[in-house]
Amino acid sequence: MSFLSRLRGGPHEVPPLPFSPDCPEGLAARWVQWVAAAGTECDPVEDPTGEHAGVNQPDDVFFLAGSYGKVVQRRCIVPGGRDLFLPVFNLWYSPAVVPPERVGDAWGALTLDGVDLEPLEIATPTPFVVAGALLNSVTFRRKPVPVTVWGLWARIPAPAPGTHHLRVVGGDGHAFRLDVSYRLEVAPVGAIRTS
Fold first, then answer.
1. Does residue 7 have a pLDDT over 90?
2. Which of 9, 61, 110, 181 would bridge with 142, disulfide CB 3.0–4.6 Å?
3. Per-residue DSSP letter, 179
């Protein structure tokens, strides 16, 4: 690796997740890695409009984000045939705290097209490694860091093609509260690919 690559942070090897990528803990860990990979310019949690929702999406699910305590209305295009996965309320611990601390007063609710959905409590009992973009909101650096996460999450089966409305509200039971609305334009299966 050249001096300049080391100075800039260069690419880092990240070990495989300590759990299946499709299980609840694996999805939560992958979501945190997705946020970290976005960096500051495309941070999906800071995104006020949904403009960056398609950046770095995996091929098997479509990640959505909450907010850092703001009321946000976003619009995005979702490839058809993909389940949605998102936090209703979550905390990541960088460096890792084992076990991740549970927020006892945390709460969350979400609705899709006016139908209430039940969030699931998910925690990563084993640390996973995150090597994100420089100044990312998870670890703030490119260097690999062990991370754990706790939260209330939802995996929503792939919505049918068309327009859908998703609303997520949650908080820590004290001063922190988020309220995020999505207008989701779900494309037919195979019609689009995300970058």
1. no
2. 9
3. E
Encode 15-39: b = buried (16+ Cβ within 10 Å), e = exposed: eebebeeeebbbbbbbbbbbbbbbb
Q: What is the pLDDT of residues 28-37, one digit of tens each?
A: 999 999 999 9
Reference 132, options 26, 14, 39, 68; nearest CA is 39
> Hunting for tokens 């994100």 — which residue is that?
132
What's the pTM value of the predicted model, to 2 decimals? 0.91
Give dist(CA 129, CA 30) in Å, integer: 10
Q: Tokens in use for 11?
A: 């690419």
Nearest to 153 by CA among 28, 23, 26: 28
In degrees and rounded to multiples of 5, residue 127 shows phi and psi of -60, 150
**113, 165 contact by CB (below 8 A):** yes
| Upstream peptide bond of 87 is cis (omega within 30 degrees of 0) | no
pLDDT tens digits along 165-181: 999 999 999 999 999 99
The answer to whether 117 and 153 have CB atoms below 8 angstroms apart is no
The candidate with the shortest Cα–Cα distance to 75, out of 49, 48, 110, is 49
